[in-house]
Amino acid sequence: MLDKILAERFIDKISEFTEYNVNIMNEKGIIIASKDKDRIGGFHEIAYKIINGEDDQIITEHEEHNYLGVKYGINMAIFYHHKKIGVIGMTGKPDEVAPILKIMRMSVETMLEYELYKEDIQHRKNLKEQFLNLILYGEDTDLFSLKYYASQLGYSETAVRIPILITTEGNVDTSQLLRKIKEGSLHTYEDISAVTREKQIIIFKCFDKGKILQGTYKYVIGEYLGNFLGFLLDRDIECHFYIGTFQNELEEYRKAYQQCCWLRDHVKAKSRGVYFYDYAGEYIHSLVPFMELHQIYHVFEELLDEKNQDDIVELVDALERNNYNLVDSSKELFIHKNTLVFRLNKLKVIFSINPLQKSNEREFLKYMCAYFKRKRNGF
Protein backbone atom coordinates (compact mmCIF):
# COMPACT_ATOMS: atom_id res chain seq x y z
CA MET A 1 0.00 0.00 0.00
CA LEU A 2 2.81 2.42 0.97
CA ASP A 3 4.69 2.98 -2.28
CA LYS A 4 8.52 3.04 -2.10
CA ILE A 5 8.85 5.68 -4.82
CA LEU A 6 6.33 7.95 -3.10
CA ALA A 7 8.17 7.55 0.22
CA GLU A 8 11.56 8.32 -1.36
CA ARG A 9 10.11 11.39 -3.08
CA PHE A 10 8.80 12.66 0.25
CA ILE A 11 12.13 12.11 2.00
CA ASP A 12 13.99 13.91 -0.79
CA LYS A 13 11.71 16.92 -0.44
CA ILE A 14 11.87 17.25 3.34
CA SER A 15 15.66 16.69 3.36
CA GLU A 16 16.04 20.23 2.04
CA PHE A 17 14.40 21.67 5.16
CA THR A 18 15.56 19.55 8.10
CA GLU A 19 18.77 18.11 9.43
CA TYR A 20 16.97 15.38 11.37
CA ASN A 21 17.12 11.88 9.97
CA VAL A 22 13.72 10.63 8.84
CA ASN A 23 12.79 7.04 7.99
CA ILE A 24 9.68 5.57 6.42
CA MET A 25 8.90 1.88 6.97
CA ASN A 26 6.37 -0.30 5.18
CA GLU A 27 3.82 -2.71 6.70
CA LYS A 28 6.55 -5.35 7.14
CA GLY A 29 8.81 -3.04 9.14
CA ILE A 30 11.32 -2.64 6.29
CA ILE A 31 12.86 0.81 5.85
CA ILE A 32 11.84 1.83 2.30
CA ALA A 33 13.04 5.45 2.42
CA SER A 34 15.50 7.30 4.63
CA LYS A 35 17.64 10.40 4.69
CA ASP A 36 20.39 7.98 5.72
CA LYS A 37 20.60 5.94 2.52
CA ASP A 38 22.61 3.20 4.25
CA ARG A 39 19.57 2.25 6.34
CA ILE A 40 17.27 1.58 3.35
CA GLY A 41 16.31 -2.08 3.17
CA GLY A 42 17.02 -2.72 6.85
CA PHE A 43 14.52 -4.11 9.32
CA HIS A 44 13.06 -1.70 11.90
CA GLU A 45 11.75 -3.66 14.88
CA ILE A 46 9.84 -0.77 16.49
CA ALA A 47 8.01 -0.11 13.20
CA TYR A 48 7.06 -3.78 12.99
CA LYS A 49 5.80 -3.65 16.59
CA ILE A 50 3.67 -0.55 15.87
CA ILE A 51 2.15 -2.11 12.73
CA ASN A 52 1.22 -5.34 14.49
CA GLY A 53 0.49 -4.01 17.96
CA GLU A 54 -1.88 -1.68 19.80
CA ASP A 55 0.48 1.30 20.05
CA ASP A 56 0.28 4.00 17.37
CA GLN A 57 3.42 5.74 18.61
CA ILE A 58 6.57 4.57 20.40
CA ILE A 59 9.16 6.92 21.89
CA THR A 60 12.75 5.75 22.25
CA GLU A 61 14.67 7.90 24.77
CA HIS A 62 18.06 6.51 23.74
CA GLU A 63 19.42 3.94 21.34
CA GLU A 64 17.78 0.64 22.24
CA HIS A 65 20.08 -2.29 21.85
CA ASN A 66 17.11 -4.54 22.53
CA TYR A 67 15.46 -3.47 19.28
CA LEU A 68 16.91 -4.23 15.88
CA GLY A 69 17.61 -1.24 13.62
CA VAL A 70 16.32 1.34 16.10
CA LYS A 71 17.84 4.68 17.17
CA TYR A 72 16.54 7.17 19.74
CA GLY A 73 13.61 9.33 18.61
CA ILE A 74 9.93 8.84 17.81
CA ASN A 75 8.11 6.49 15.47
CA MET A 76 4.46 7.04 14.50
CA ALA A 77 2.00 4.90 12.56
CA ILE A 78 0.89 6.07 9.11
CA PHE A 79 -2.83 5.53 8.52
CA TYR A 80 -4.94 5.12 5.41
CA HIS A 81 -8.69 4.75 5.94
CA HIS A 82 -8.06 4.07 9.66
CA LYS A 83 -5.69 1.21 8.88
CA LYS A 84 -1.97 1.14 9.70
CA ILE A 85 -0.02 0.87 6.46
CA GLY A 86 3.43 2.01 7.56
CA VAL A 87 5.50 3.97 10.07
CA ILE A 88 7.39 7.25 9.93
CA GLY A 89 10.23 7.83 12.36
CA MET A 90 12.54 10.69 13.21
CA THR A 91 15.85 10.46 15.04
CA GLY A 92 16.41 13.06 17.76
CA LYS A 93 15.28 14.24 21.18
CA PRO A 94 11.60 13.29 21.44
CA ASP A 95 10.39 16.64 22.80
CA GLU A 96 12.11 18.43 19.89
CA VAL A 97 11.11 16.18 17.02
CA ALA A 98 7.54 15.26 18.08
CA PRO A 99 5.78 18.38 16.65
CA ILE A 100 7.79 18.14 13.43
CA LEU A 101 7.09 14.44 13.02
CA LYS A 102 3.33 14.91 13.50
CA ILE A 103 3.27 17.43 10.66
CA MET A 104 5.35 15.10 8.50
CA ARG A 105 3.03 12.17 9.22
CA MET A 106 0.02 14.27 8.22
CA SER A 107 1.86 15.31 5.06
CA VAL A 108 2.62 11.70 4.13
CA GLU A 109 -0.98 10.65 4.76
CA THR A 110 -2.31 13.56 2.69
CA MET A 111 0.13 12.86 -0.14
CA LEU A 112 -0.77 9.18 -0.05
CA GLU A 113 -4.51 9.91 -0.18
CA TYR A 114 -4.00 12.26 -3.10
CA GLU A 115 -1.85 9.79 -5.04
CA LEU A 116 -4.29 6.95 -4.44
CA TYR A 117 -7.15 9.24 -5.42
CA LYS A 118 -5.37 9.99 -8.69
CA GLU A 119 -4.82 6.28 -9.24
CA ASP A 120 -8.52 5.60 -8.58
CA ILE A 121 -9.52 8.33 -11.03
CA GLN A 122 -7.16 6.97 -13.68
CA HIS A 123 -8.35 3.42 -13.03
CA ARG A 124 -11.97 4.52 -13.38
CA LYS A 125 -11.10 6.45 -16.54
CA ASN A 126 -9.47 3.37 -18.04
CA LEU A 127 -12.44 1.19 -17.07
CA LYS A 128 -14.87 3.70 -18.53
CA GLU A 129 -12.91 3.94 -21.79
CA GLN A 130 -13.00 0.15 -22.13
CA PHE A 131 -16.71 0.11 -21.25
CA LEU A 132 -17.59 2.77 -23.84
CA ASN A 133 -15.38 1.19 -26.49
CA LEU A 134 -17.20 -2.09 -25.97
CA ILE A 135 -20.58 -0.35 -26.26
CA LEU A 136 -19.80 1.85 -29.24
CA TYR A 137 -17.35 -0.20 -31.29
CA GLY A 138 -17.43 -3.82 -30.08
CA GLU A 139 -17.99 -6.22 -32.96
CA ASP A 140 -19.76 -8.81 -30.83
CA THR A 141 -21.99 -8.17 -27.84
CA ASP A 142 -20.07 -9.39 -24.78
CA LEU A 143 -22.77 -9.20 -22.11
CA PHE A 144 -20.52 -10.58 -19.36
CA SER A 145 -17.92 -7.83 -19.93
CA LEU A 146 -20.60 -5.14 -20.20
CA LYS A 147 -22.06 -6.18 -16.85
CA TYR A 148 -18.59 -6.37 -15.27
CA TYR A 149 -17.65 -2.85 -16.32
CA ALA A 150 -21.05 -1.46 -15.32
CA SER A 151 -20.67 -3.05 -11.88
CA GLN A 152 -17.12 -1.73 -11.42
CA LEU A 153 -18.19 1.77 -12.43
CA GLY A 154 -21.29 1.76 -10.26
CA TYR A 155 -23.83 1.93 -13.10
CA SER A 156 -27.20 0.19 -12.84
CA GLU A 157 -27.57 -2.50 -15.52
CA THR A 158 -31.34 -2.17 -15.78
CA ALA A 159 -31.82 1.60 -15.57
CA VAL A 160 -33.65 3.11 -18.54
CA ARG A 161 -31.33 5.33 -20.56
CA ILE A 162 -31.66 7.17 -23.86
CA PRO A 163 -28.63 8.04 -26.04
CA ILE A 164 -27.95 11.65 -27.01
CA LEU A 165 -25.34 12.25 -29.73
CA ILE A 166 -24.08 15.84 -29.83
CA THR A 167 -22.26 17.20 -32.87
CA THR A 168 -20.56 20.57 -33.15
CA GLU A 169 -19.04 22.52 -36.00
CA GLY A 170 -15.69 24.23 -36.04
CA ASN A 171 -12.54 23.72 -34.03
CA VAL A 172 -13.85 23.05 -30.52
CA ASP A 173 -12.58 21.02 -27.57
CA THR A 174 -15.33 18.42 -27.15
CA SER A 175 -13.76 17.11 -23.94
CA GLN A 176 -14.15 20.56 -22.42
CA LEU A 177 -17.73 20.75 -23.69
CA LEU A 178 -18.51 17.39 -22.06
CA ARG A 179 -17.11 18.66 -18.76
CA LYS A 180 -19.49 21.61 -19.06
CA ILE A 181 -22.45 19.24 -19.43
CA LYS A 182 -21.33 17.16 -16.45
CA GLU A 183 -21.14 20.28 -14.30
CA GLY A 184 -24.88 20.78 -14.81
CA SER A 185 -27.19 20.07 -11.88
CA LEU A 186 -29.32 17.64 -13.95
CA HIS A 187 -26.39 15.39 -14.89
CA THR A 188 -26.42 12.36 -12.56
CA TYR A 189 -24.00 9.61 -11.56
CA GLU A 190 -26.12 7.17 -13.59
CA ASP A 191 -25.55 9.14 -16.82
CA ILE A 192 -22.90 7.48 -19.01
CA SER A 193 -20.97 9.94 -21.16
CA ALA A 194 -17.88 10.08 -23.37
CA VAL A 195 -16.25 11.69 -26.39
CA THR A 196 -16.37 9.42 -29.44
CA ARG A 197 -13.57 8.74 -31.92
CA GLU A 198 -15.26 11.26 -34.22
CA LYS A 199 -14.86 13.94 -31.51
CA GLN A 200 -18.58 14.00 -30.85
CA ILE A 201 -20.28 13.69 -27.46
CA ILE A 202 -22.40 10.67 -26.56
CA ILE A 203 -24.50 10.58 -23.42
CA PHE A 204 -26.66 7.69 -22.28
CA LYS A 205 -29.02 9.78 -20.16
CA CYS A 206 -30.68 7.95 -17.28
CA PHE A 207 -34.44 8.41 -17.30
CA ASP A 208 -37.19 8.20 -14.72
CA LYS A 209 -39.38 5.34 -15.95
CA GLY A 210 -42.48 7.18 -14.78
CA LYS A 211 -41.88 10.04 -17.21
CA ILE A 212 -41.47 7.96 -20.36
CA LEU A 213 -45.21 7.38 -20.86
CA GLN A 214 -46.23 10.88 -19.74
CA GLY A 215 -45.34 12.47 -23.07
CA THR A 216 -42.77 14.72 -21.40
CA TYR A 217 -39.49 13.03 -22.34
CA LYS A 218 -38.65 15.71 -24.92
CA TYR A 219 -39.24 18.38 -22.31
CA VAL A 220 -36.99 16.56 -19.82
CA ILE A 221 -34.19 16.29 -22.39
CA GLY A 222 -34.64 19.94 -23.37
CA GLU A 223 -34.35 20.97 -19.73
CA TYR A 224 -31.24 18.81 -19.30
CA LEU A 225 -29.51 20.36 -22.34
CA GLY A 226 -30.94 23.89 -22.10
CA ASN A 227 -28.09 25.60 -20.25
CA PHE A 228 -25.50 23.80 -22.37
CA LEU A 229 -27.22 24.93 -25.57
CA GLY A 230 -27.20 28.49 -24.28
CA PHE A 231 -23.49 28.15 -23.53
CA LEU A 232 -22.82 27.04 -27.12
CA LEU A 233 -24.97 29.73 -28.74
CA ASP A 234 -23.29 32.45 -26.67
CA ARG A 235 -20.02 31.35 -28.28
CA ASP A 236 -21.47 30.97 -31.80
CA ILE A 237 -20.86 27.21 -31.78
CA GLU A 238 -23.29 25.47 -34.14
CA CYS A 239 -24.59 22.17 -32.81
CA HIS A 240 -27.14 19.38 -33.25
CA PHE A 241 -28.58 16.89 -30.78
CA TYR A 242 -29.60 13.45 -32.04
CA ILE A 243 -31.75 11.59 -29.51
CA GLY A 244 -32.11 7.83 -29.92
CA THR A 245 -34.27 5.11 -28.38
CA PHE A 246 -34.99 4.16 -24.76
CA GLN A 247 -33.07 1.09 -23.60
CA ASN A 248 -32.85 -0.88 -20.35
CA GLU A 249 -30.46 -3.63 -21.50
CA LEU A 250 -26.74 -2.95 -21.87
CA GLU A 251 -26.42 -5.16 -24.95
CA GLU A 252 -28.83 -2.86 -26.85
CA TYR A 253 -26.82 0.33 -26.26
CA ARG A 254 -24.66 -0.09 -29.34
CA LYS A 255 -27.70 -0.37 -31.60
CA ALA A 256 -29.22 2.68 -29.92
CA TYR A 257 -25.99 4.61 -30.56
CA GLN A 258 -26.00 3.51 -34.21
CA GLN A 259 -29.55 4.80 -34.54
CA CYS A 260 -28.31 8.22 -33.38
CA CYS A 261 -25.62 8.02 -36.06
CA TRP A 262 -28.31 7.15 -38.62
CA LEU A 263 -30.19 10.31 -37.65
CA ARG A 264 -27.00 12.34 -38.02
CA ASP A 265 -26.24 10.93 -41.46
CA HIS A 266 -29.72 10.75 -43.01
CA VAL A 267 -32.01 13.35 -41.46
CA LYS A 268 -31.67 16.97 -42.52
CA ALA A 269 -33.87 18.68 -39.96
CA LYS A 270 -34.36 22.39 -39.38
CA SER A 271 -34.36 22.04 -35.61
CA ARG A 272 -31.25 21.41 -33.52
CA GLY A 273 -32.92 18.56 -31.66
CA VAL A 274 -33.69 15.49 -33.77
CA TYR A 275 -35.63 12.65 -32.13
CA PHE A 276 -35.43 9.11 -33.49
CA TYR A 277 -39.04 8.28 -32.71
CA ASP A 278 -40.10 11.07 -35.10
CA TYR A 279 -38.24 9.27 -37.89
CA ALA A 280 -38.77 5.63 -36.90
CA GLY A 281 -40.76 5.00 -40.09
CA GLU A 282 -37.98 6.31 -42.31
CA TYR A 283 -35.45 4.23 -40.40
CA ILE A 284 -37.49 1.07 -40.85
CA HIS A 285 -37.86 1.91 -44.56
CA SER A 286 -34.07 2.13 -44.80
CA LEU A 287 -33.79 -1.44 -43.51
CA VAL A 288 -35.80 -2.85 -46.43
CA PRO A 289 -33.33 -4.64 -48.75
CA PHE A 290 -32.79 -2.71 -51.96
CA MET A 291 -33.53 -5.75 -54.12
CA GLU A 292 -36.97 -6.01 -52.53
CA LEU A 293 -37.71 -2.44 -53.60
CA HIS A 294 -36.17 -3.09 -57.01
CA GLN A 295 -38.40 -6.10 -57.60
CA ILE A 296 -41.49 -4.04 -56.72
CA TYR A 297 -40.71 -0.70 -58.40
CA HIS A 298 -38.14 -1.22 -61.17
CA VAL A 299 -40.70 -1.07 -63.99
CA PHE A 300 -41.87 2.37 -62.84
CA GLU A 301 -38.25 3.50 -62.69
CA GLU A 302 -37.73 2.37 -66.31
CA LEU A 303 -40.93 4.04 -67.57
CA LEU A 304 -40.34 7.40 -65.88
CA ASP A 305 -37.52 9.60 -67.12
CA GLU A 306 -35.07 11.17 -64.66
CA LYS A 307 -36.87 14.54 -64.63
CA ASN A 308 -40.20 12.94 -63.72
CA GLN A 309 -38.55 10.88 -61.00
CA ASP A 310 -36.94 14.00 -59.49
CA ASP A 311 -40.25 15.88 -59.57
CA ILE A 312 -42.10 13.02 -57.88
CA VAL A 313 -39.44 12.66 -55.16
CA GLU A 314 -39.41 16.40 -54.48
CA LEU A 315 -43.20 16.55 -54.26
CA VAL A 316 -43.69 13.45 -52.11
CA ASP A 317 -40.87 14.37 -49.71
CA ALA A 318 -42.39 17.82 -49.15
CA LEU A 319 -45.86 16.36 -48.63
CA GLU A 320 -44.49 13.80 -46.15
CA ARG A 321 -42.61 16.41 -44.15
CA ASN A 322 -45.76 18.54 -43.92
CA ASN A 323 -48.20 15.70 -43.22
CA TYR A 324 -49.77 16.20 -46.65
CA ASN A 325 -50.81 19.75 -45.81
CA LEU A 326 -51.01 21.43 -49.24
CA VAL A 327 -50.48 24.99 -48.02
CA ASP A 328 -47.39 24.18 -45.95
CA SER A 329 -45.98 21.91 -48.67
CA SER A 330 -46.36 24.58 -51.36
CA LYS A 331 -44.59 27.09 -49.11
CA GLU A 332 -41.69 24.71 -48.60
CA LEU A 333 -41.40 24.17 -52.37
CA PHE A 334 -41.77 27.91 -53.07
CA ILE A 335 -44.62 27.28 -55.51
CA HIS A 336 -48.25 28.35 -55.63
CA LYS A 337 -50.75 25.99 -54.06
CA ASN A 338 -52.48 25.53 -57.42
CA THR A 339 -49.20 24.44 -58.97
CA LEU A 340 -48.78 21.84 -56.24
CA VAL A 341 -52.35 20.60 -56.80
CA PHE A 342 -51.62 20.30 -60.52
CA ARG A 343 -48.54 18.15 -59.83
CA LEU A 344 -50.48 16.03 -57.35
CA ASN A 345 -53.30 15.46 -59.85
CA LYS A 346 -50.69 14.34 -62.36
CA LEU A 347 -49.56 11.71 -59.85
CA LYS A 348 -53.14 10.58 -59.35
CA VAL A 349 -53.57 10.05 -63.10
CA ILE A 350 -50.25 8.23 -63.63
CA PHE A 351 -50.68 5.77 -60.77
CA SER A 352 -54.46 5.84 -60.30
CA ILE A 353 -54.14 6.72 -56.63
CA ASN A 354 -55.32 9.38 -54.16
CA PRO A 355 -52.72 9.76 -51.39
CA LEU A 356 -54.67 12.60 -49.76
CA GLN A 357 -57.38 10.15 -48.77
CA LYS A 358 -55.68 6.76 -48.52
CA SER A 359 -52.72 6.13 -46.23
CA ASN A 360 -51.74 2.91 -48.02
CA GLU A 361 -51.30 4.89 -51.24
CA ARG A 362 -49.06 7.33 -49.37
CA GLU A 363 -46.96 4.33 -48.38
CA PHE A 364 -46.79 3.25 -52.03
CA LEU A 365 -45.36 6.64 -53.02
CA LYS A 366 -43.01 6.80 -50.04
CA TYR A 367 -41.39 3.43 -50.80
CA MET A 368 -41.20 4.18 -54.51
CA CYS A 369 -39.40 7.46 -53.85
CA ALA A 370 -37.09 5.66 -51.44
CA TYR A 371 -36.27 3.24 -54.26
CA PHE A 372 -35.58 6.08 -56.72
CA LYS A 373 -33.25 7.81 -54.24
CA ARG A 374 -31.38 4.65 -53.27
CA LYS A 375 -30.91 3.66 -56.92
CA ARG A 376 -29.60 7.15 -57.68
CA ASN A 377 -27.22 7.08 -54.69
CA GLY A 378 -25.82 3.64 -55.40
CA PHE A 379 -28.26 1.66 -53.22
From TrEMBL:
* InterPro entries named among the record's database cross-references: CdaR-like_regulators, Diacid_rec, PucR_C-HTH_sf
Superkingdom, natural source:
Bacteria
> Which residues are in the Putative sugar diacid recognition domain?
2-132
One Pfam family name from the record? Diacid_rec
Give the PANTHER family listed for this entry.
CARBOHYDRATE DIACID REGULATOR
User: What is the name of the protein in this document?
Assistant: CdaR family transcriptional regulator
Q: Which organism is it from?
A: Hungatella hathewayi
